[in-house]
């Protein structure tokens, strides 16, 4: 058996090889030594070649002055070319190569002109040449990889994921966050290649998909920053304990949770002309069980805790999650006809508020607009003196479970509001599970620049987040409803690099209910109230349906009961006559009255009912509309008159004709729903 021996790398070699396997080098040991020496020979061959070039050059040009000039220029040019060619390598290697070239060409020039043995030229060759050659040998030995390839600072990670030859710069290390700049190969790779490789990078690092993000450089198609968050700091649930800035301005940041690196998750609703931030509308989207209700509560409690904002809120679920906060709302609607009126009122206040802001010199709503107008620069008076007008608070129009509203009013119910409200100091918030195009019009979705995207079906990611954010590594579909509260937030004022960073909202438990009730009480005593312009425009459309926020001291703003409220059993009077009070004076023995003009004769297949005279009809119908208006029910249709028709002995077909006539007279206004009419308040109609 052949003897074995090992080299310094632990590899074993036989002392002899079978016949026919010898490569002609005279033995395996010598072949191995020669193979190991080959990578180190080029510097020494260069040293020997330099000496030969100097000797031959002196024999050819030793007495030529022109050759001296040419050799000097060639030396400079060769050194510059070496520096230029090394721009794709490291700075250390580039400088080493340039110094070596400059030293070698300078010695050749001196040897050609003066002779290789003149003065110290031969000593420089014999001492300096080996030193330079050995410096390259040392450089090669110091490499981590013995095969001579350049070591990568990323440990070969980029090569594994298909991004070979991409360069990664010095990483910025923060607590639980690593940010590294990447420069891709020119002409061969783009930022799209990195976004496609994010899942492979996460796999190589054994991290979840959401832990690896890429932010492209907006000024380059091949540069960007790779962000890696090794530890998920969102796994620990944080409960809501109260608002972050009670009594502050709505223009200040609204804190709704935290990012995965522990920093605050914030957003803004009003714009700020000083920093160039636009006012915004918001979308809260997430499938059932993803924590959408808690996300909404985080944002709503932050809004209500500010001193210069009012909230109009629609919730078809009868405020199941928001009941403790209801006393702090300036207008609370429970869906259906109430929401129809609220939508119409928001549409009506937009031009009125815009007109007021323009008259007072505001191009957009700012906190100063909510204060009394004592500044001459914001005066509506023609003489430029301070007008002293009452301020206008910011208005948030919130539509919870908006899919219900969109089904009733049409998919473009919010389009006009979304496109026009920002300049009026109005922010629209729409909350629904799936903001797909079959529920919400594309125009409305395009006008909602801010989004809180919670867990969703993987196929719905494009409905909630912009494509660029998904390409950067944001994937709410990876959570579904398994991680309640996890979200991505895209909104003006947030660094775009943060768009693809996951955050988590705070959790609302039963312990939060008393704090929410205290917040609602604080709003009643210290919160803003609607300004006269907003009140006037809303009342002109909603009439008594808009009453403003309730107060404990005066009870002002309490909403009237419904037109046909059902009495509880405890309210019934027990005992006494078992007849209706209106029938108490009827003599059961008296003859029935004769038939009057206008009475119907029941005919089989036709609806029975009395047909009053035109004058009586107008009086009765006007009375009915007044009853609805007094009760605050401002949207009506034929089915709402069922009990009223029975009470007056009238047919529903007669009511349908009267509705159309009232619309022609301006007492009713058509809605987006066929067969439904909005009552124009009597004062406005007049």
Query: For the record, what CATH class of the largest domain applies?
Result: Alpha Beta
| CATH fold name of the largest domain | Rossmann fold
Silhouette: elongated
Biggest sheet features = 10 strands, mixed
Mean pLDDT score? 80
- Number of DSSP helices? 21
Strand content: 5-15%
Indicate the topology.
Layout: E1 4-6, E2 12-14, H1 28-37, H2 41-61, H3 65-85, H4 91-114, H5 121-141, H6 157-160, E3 167-168, E4 172-174, E5 177-183, H7 191-196, H8 198-205, E6 212-216, E7 223-228, E8 254-259, E9 264-267, E10 282-285, H9 292-304, E11 309-314, E12 331-333, H10 337-359, E13 394-399, H11 402-409, H12 415-420, E14 426-432, H13 442-446, E15 450-454, H14 461-464, H15 467-471, E16 486-490, E17 503-505, H16 513-526, H17 532-542, H18 614-630, E18 635-636, H19 642-648, H20 652-664, E19 668-670, E20 677-679, H21 682-685
Parallel strand pairs: 10-14, 10-15, 11-12, 11-13, 13-14
Antiparallel strand pairs: 1-2, 3-5, 4-5, 5-7, 6-7, 8-9, 8-17, 15-16, 16-17, 18-20, 19-20
Helix pairs in contact: 2-4, 2-5, 3-4, 4-5, 10-17
Structure, described:
The N terminus is likely disordered. Helix 2 runs antiparallel to helix 5. A 10-stranded mixed beta sheet has the order 9-8-17-16-15-10-14-13-11-12. Strands 3, 4, 5, 6 and 7 form a 5-stranded antiparallel beta sheet that branches. It has a 3-stranded antiparallel beta sheet with strand order 18-20-19. With 686 residues, it is an alpha+beta fold. The longest helix is centred in the N-terminal third of the chain and has 24 residues. The protein has 21 helices and 20 strands. The chain has 4 domains: 138 residues, no CATH class; 72 residues, Gyrase A, domain 2, CATH 3.30.1360; 292 residues, Rossmann fold (3-Layer(aba) Sandwich); 86 residues, Arc Repressor Mutant, subunit A (Orthogonal Bundle). The radius of gyration is 41 Å and the shape is elongated. This is Sporulation protein SsgA. It comes from Streptomyces griseorubiginosus. Keywords: ATP-binding, Nucleotide-binding.
